[in-house]
Amino acid sequence: MKYHFILLSIVVCFFLINKSYADQKQLVGADADYGEHLFGECVTCHNSTGLGQGIPKITGMKTSQFITKILAYKTKEKENAVMQMVAERLGEEEINSLALYLSKLK
Amino acid sequence: MTKMKRRTFVGLAAATTTTLSMPSIAFGALPRVVVIGGGAGGATAAKYIAKDSKGAIDVTLVEASKRYYTCFFSNLYLGDFRAYGSIGHNYYGLAVNHGVNMVHEWALSVNNAAKKVNLGSGESISYDKLVISPGIDLKFESVNGYSAEAQSKMPHAWKSGTQVQLLKNQVKGMKKGGTFVMVPPPNPYRCPPGPYERVSMIAHQFKKSNPTAKIVILDPKNKFSKQGLFMEGWQKHYPGMIEWISAETHGGIKKINAATMEFETDLDTFKADAASVVPAQRAGRIAMNAGVNNGDWCPIVPASMQAQADENIYVLGDASIAKSMPKSGFSANSQAKVAANHIRGSLTGSKVFTPRFANTCWSLVATNDGIKVGANYKATDEKIDKTSGFISKTGEDSNLRKATYEESIGWYSGITSDMFS
Ligand SMILES: Cc1cc2nc3c(=O)[nH]c(=O)nc-3n(C[C@H](O)[C@H](O)[C@H](O)COP(=O)(O)OP(=O)(O)OC[C@H]3O[C@@H](n4cnc5c(N)ncnc54)[C@H](O)[C@@H]3O)c2cc1C
């Protein structure tokens, strides 16, 4: 019984580590410190504590979801003048750093 | 060179130069930052320096008031879109969540050589780096006949607080069919679209309870921020109520008389039943005392927000000459983050990133009719240069305008939580 539990835990841990590695592997040039610094720009509007009335909450967003949305603003597929302007000057390194930082936030 | 390397290089370069100028701190003592002014610039700077240094820097915020009423959304209070209490904030979060030492006093003067701030109580506080974000003082004398005594008859309401409540009371109590006169300030001033949003909100009030009232704007300028958008909105929501008279047309305000409520111009003498006069402005007095001004405002180094006159002092927000950024709460918040990162780098050797500045200003024209203007900026040797921008368009559909208004509510909640919690 105890043995099974340990084995299961090892398998689960391996899976989780592997998954987060797979997520982060794609984040070329990502730097969590830089992400935290850039995040300062987001929280002028995206309330880091509240419910996100009028402006959606971004904390807790999945890495892939975040990247897809930012890219959609960058290519102007997604409408919103402020977000298009924000996304416009985010390069790959900035987007990945933000994504990495966001993934570490609860 | 890859982007990554370029940025790291910026960080290292800054860290290297700052190592040379690291303050001589007694062994074991923490480096000290004093921030004067707990508004959009100062509260943000104090929070980010304290939060990001994780206890490695001792941060003191000197703010005269225990409660900060925002100027932003004070116009929405005039239009009954906000309760006054909802635009007041305290410093609990800064003290409790981030360990900022709150000193609720006036900073009277700065001794640059000894690196000390002298307080109203007679105490003084030492600093390694000083941040000054005192907002504006009003140049009452810029409007002939206006004064600190006249302000209760014709509130400027440009520093929030009781003045805004007084103005609202006068608007609501104005006689039926009466005339409200608005005198906006000359450039440069705090919140370029502010006077015109104020007119919109007062018109909204009149439309409900005093529909035959008139509003006359005696402008010292010939054009103004978001002009096409405001004019379109006034025509649509308040037809015939608002008359904007440019400086060219009225020839200049020669004299005002607060006792008779008269405004003398070349064109005519206008008699008001209620009025708001916003005079010209300058950096808060403490900036002059610290000797970091050149005339009315403070020149800064665009990449760091350091005062050109003293590298140990940073000037943020309205008090600074941050051309081409407008004097807004959003700008002050953005500048504060650049300065906080630079200060932390120079005191602890942490990474200093390439500065990035941004601003967006939302205004409300009428119920669910929000407009906005925004831009990105980067630091050059000479100024904070605009790199791209946008502005709402005339004729936009009402769903977009409603979404823009809702976005502004989100921004208000975001920025105030960013400043205070
Ligand atoms: C009607 C109106 C509407 C506005 N709307 C918007 C808007 O929608 N969006 C936007 O971004 N901006 C808006 N603004 C502009 C915004 O309010 C200012 O640009 C912003 O507050 C500037 O921040 P600051 O840090 O420079 O000064 P402030 O926020 O004014 O803070 C200065 C603080 O310093 C304190 N202080 C000053 N001197 C001393 C001293 N010697 N000792 C101790 N404390 C001191 C003051 O008490 C004050 O709390 C508006 C302004 C007005 C008037």
Q: What does this protein structure show overall?
A:
The complex is a heterodimer of chains A (about 110) and B (about 425). Chain A has about 110 residues and is mainly alpha-helical. Chain A is about 65% helix and about 0% strand. Helix content of chain B is about 30%, strand content about 30%. Chain B contains 11 helices and 25 strands. Chain B is globular and about 70 Å long. Chain B starts with a helix and ends with a helix. Chains A and B meet through helix 2 and helix 4 of A and helix 1, helix 10, strand 24, strand 25 and helix 11 of B. Bound molecules: flavin-adenine dinucleotide. Flavin-adenine dinucleotide binds near residues 106 and 328 of chain B.
* Lateral arrangement of strands in the main beta sheet of chain B: 5-2-1-9-21-20-19-22
Query: Residue-averaged pLDDT of chain B, rounded?
Result: 94
Number of helices in the DSSP assignment of chain B: 11
The CATH homology group name of the largest domain in chain B: FAD/NAD(P)-binding domain
Q: What structural category arises from helix and sheet content of chain A?
A: mainly alpha
> Which regions of chain B contain 5 or more consecutive residues with pLDDT less than 50?
1-25
Beginning-to-end CA distance, first to last residue of chain A: 33 Å
Count of distinct strands of chain B: 25
The major sheet of chain A is characterized as: none
Principal-axis shape of chain B: globular
The CATH topology of chain A is given as Cytochrome Bc1 Complex, Chain D, domain 2
Instruction: Output the number of helix runs of chain A.
Output: 5
Poorly predicted regions of chain A are 11-22
